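Quick one:
INPUT:
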């Protein structure tokens, strides 16, 4: 399984500049709108982390960041499907690379795994801490290692 770490809750609204740097984070929609208004001429965008459907006419965007800035991350199951290998072999490769370790039959991140971008994601916004999965950046040595599984 997955190691549970308690992280501080993120604010609902975030305003970022054109480069993706955070200008303001708040739970107050009015404050987010004000920060966006002050910086919109410089390419700032405001995002609602809890919004799923986006209205193109609105000043507020869905999600946390622009799709172009976001790094694609996939679960072990998604990586296995993409490269036509078993999920167990992907997890075994994650252990071999030192990204995760198995303790009492459960999967836990290692420091190396966190440093390469391993992340715990909840299955949905209202999920408990135990209702989630590990995701990994879709680049670099992990992809090369997975491609070499059946070769």
């Amino acid at each position: 399984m997955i190691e549970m770490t308690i992280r501080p809750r993120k604010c609902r609204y975030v305003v970022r500049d054109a480069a993706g740097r955070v200008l303001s984070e708040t739970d107050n929609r009015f404050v987010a709108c004000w920060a966006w208004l002050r910086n919109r001429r410089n390419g700032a965008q405001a995002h609602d982390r809890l919004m799923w459907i986006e209205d193109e006419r609105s000043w507020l965007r869905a999600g946390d960041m622009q799709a172009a800035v976001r790094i694609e991350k996939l679960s072990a199951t998604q990586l296995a499907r993409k490269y036509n290998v078993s999920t167990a072999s992907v997890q075994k490769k994650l252990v071999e690379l030192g990204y995760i370790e198995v303790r009492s039959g459960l999967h836990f991140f290692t420091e190396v795994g966190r440093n390469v971008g391993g992340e715990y994601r909840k299955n949905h916004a209202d999920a408990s801490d135990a209702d989630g999965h590990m995701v990994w950046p879709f680049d670099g040595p992990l992809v090369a290692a997975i491609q070499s599984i059946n070769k």
